Description:
Low-confidence stretches: none
Number of domains: 1
Radius of gyration: 14 Å
Structural class: alpha+beta
Order of helices and strands: EHEHEEHHH
Helix content: 40-55%
Largest sheet: 4 strands, mixed
Strand content: 5-15%
Number of strands: 4
Strand order of the largest sheet: 2-1-3-4
Mean pLDDT: 90
Amino acid sequence: MTSDVRPIYPLTVFYDGGCPVCAREIACYRRLVCDGRLSFIDISQPDFDPTLYGRSRQEFMAQMHVMDTNGRFFVGVEAFRALWRGMPGVIYPFLATLAGFPGIHLLARVGYHWFARLRHYLPRPKL
């Protein structure tokens, strides 16, 4: 399994609200978790200042970031694993564990890498 550094909750989830897939997924997480374990920051907003977190906008836009209470960052697949560990029920924590197994972790990292690079080319839903 991958290194299993456990996040300290609550978490701050940095997401791209300009990405339709990202925005939908975060909306789902917001509906499921309302106990203060997660807070969300839309990095696509003009007033977002990445320097407050010691990162560039480009770094934040490249992959999802999650920061725990101790200021430790989890990036990419590890961000999802940290986030999923804090979700209620058994499905998301199970996915976090499953995504930590070597073969699955590798596939998840490769898949997420390509999604993150191509997500800006996805069609926007018509409203």
